[in-house]
Structure formats: C-alpha cells, structure tokens
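queue> pop job 88
queue> type: inverse folding (structure -> sequence)
queue> payload:
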C-alpha cells in the first residue's frame, strides 16, 4: 500500500477524504462496476443507494481492500493509494461495519470492542486500559443506552449491538466508517438510536458511508446521496436538493429529469 504523504495532499478543506475516479471491476465476463466516480468528505454522511445488483457491495469491498479494482484511481486525503487488503485499508483509518456485526455473544462489550486487537500487559489482558478506552469511545459518541461496558453482548438489544459494532469501528482512530444496512431488522426506537449515532459520527468529523435500502433513513440522516445504477454512478447529489421520488427514479431508471445518466447511457446499461 502506498502511504499518503501529507505534504502532497491538496491544501484546504475541499479535498475529499475518499475519492474514486473511473472505477472498474469485473468478475469473469460480468462487468460489475463501470467507470464509477465517488467523493466522500469528512464530517458528512454519504448515503450509497441502488437496487440489488447495482454494485454497492462490490464498490465497498473494493474500498475496504477485500476486492482489488481492475482500473481507476483510489485517492485518500487527496493522495493516490493502493489498497490490496483489509489491513491496508485499516491502516488508512477505514473501518467497515457489516450487517452481521461480527460480535461474540459470550463476551462483554469491552472484549468485543477489542476483539482481535486486545491490549496486553505482559502475558495477560490489560483490562483496565481496555475498559477505560471503551468508555471514552462510547462517551465520545454520546452513547447512553448501555447499562455497563461489562454487559455480555448476548443481553443487548439489536440497536445496542449495532452501537457496540460502530463504537468498535471508531475506537482505532478511524477517519472513514462504512456502515452496511445498520438499521436493517431494527424497530422504530432502535432505528432512531442508530441514526443519531450515525449523525454523531459525522458531527465528530469522520467521513461516513451509509449503505441503506431505507430511503426514509437516508433522507433523514444523509448529507449527500450517491446512486448506483447497474454498475454506474447515476448521480451524487446533495440531499437537500432532491426529493425522495427523484432518488427512487435514479435508483430504478438511472435518471430523474435533468439529473442522472444520459438517456443513451441509461439504455446501454440495460
């Protein structure tokens, strides 16, 4: 992986935290991503939406280093980088919270937050340091729904589990957090709890990519919306500039009025 050179980054706050240019990815004869451009800025929630098969998972797995893109540029803090595996993505400050959350029911909140990255004191776990860092991270996210950081994860609600997974992602000085359907299968109250946490991440200065099929959640919490349509970026728009029905049209047809792919490009995609 190429390490970013701070002196090479573009000066000023307008440089995206993450920028993808002309990204292509194929699996055999199937072209999944076709010239995708995407910008994610610090302090903003960027919703990534699209129908099933649009390429969302492939794009995110490429950002996370699980897949290698076939072509295109991957810029991080304005500097071209190469991310060939998840470890390289983590080193840049990129963390992903997948739908399965990857939590261990038999462990408490602290041990789940440090799972695989435990702090040692000689040959034993440094419980005091891990607990203090876990509390500090949760406090920084204004989490008030956990009774104790020593609660077993098995005793937590769906919303609380999602909170633990997100807190684990930001524990490691992350700059970009990718959330894959964080409100799926949650009730109304738990969804609101998680959306407040998503907003808090951006308010704390992190860049956030939110993958969601729930347009209500997207319109509520996202600053901008990037719509994938059959492997192409139909549009990336400021949320306040579009209506929900326009986002639906972009998802289903690749175009809404003057926004999106040209009619010819939308037809070619089909």
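queue> result:
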């Amino acid at each position: 992986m190429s390490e970013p050179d701070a002196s090479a980054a573009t000066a000023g706050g307008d440089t995206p935290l993450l920028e993808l240019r002309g990204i292509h990815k194929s699996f055999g004869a199937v072209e999944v991503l076709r010239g995708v451009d995407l910008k994610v800025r610090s302090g903003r929630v960027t919703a990534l939406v699209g129908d099933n098969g649009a390429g969302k998972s492939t794009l995110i797995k490429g950002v996370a280093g699980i897949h290698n893109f076939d072509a295109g540029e991957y810029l991080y803090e304005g500097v071209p980088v190469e991310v060939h595996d998840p470890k390289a993505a983590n080193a840049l400050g990129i963390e992903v919270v997948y739908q399965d959350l990857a939590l261990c029911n038999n462990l408490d909140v602290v041990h789940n937050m440090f799972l695989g990255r435990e702090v040692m004191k000689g040959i034993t776990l440094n419980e005091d340091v891990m607990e203090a860092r876990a509390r500090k991270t949760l406090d920084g996210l204004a989490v008030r729904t956990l009774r104790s950081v020593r609660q077993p994860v098995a005793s937590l609600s769906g919303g609380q589990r999602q909170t633990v997974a997100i807190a684990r992602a930001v524990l490691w000085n992350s700059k970009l957090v990718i959330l894959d359907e964080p409100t799926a299968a949650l009730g109304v109250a738990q969804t609101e709890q998680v959306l407040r946490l998503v907003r808090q991440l951006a308010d704390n200065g992190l860049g956030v990519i939110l993958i969601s099929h729930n347009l209500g959640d997207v319109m509520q919490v996202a600053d901008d919306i990037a719509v994938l349509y059959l492997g192409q970026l139909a549009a990336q728009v400021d949320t306040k500039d579009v209506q929900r029905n326009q986002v639906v049209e972009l998802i289903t047809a690749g175009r809404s009025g003057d926004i999106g792919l040209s009619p010819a490009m939308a037809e070619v995609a089909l």
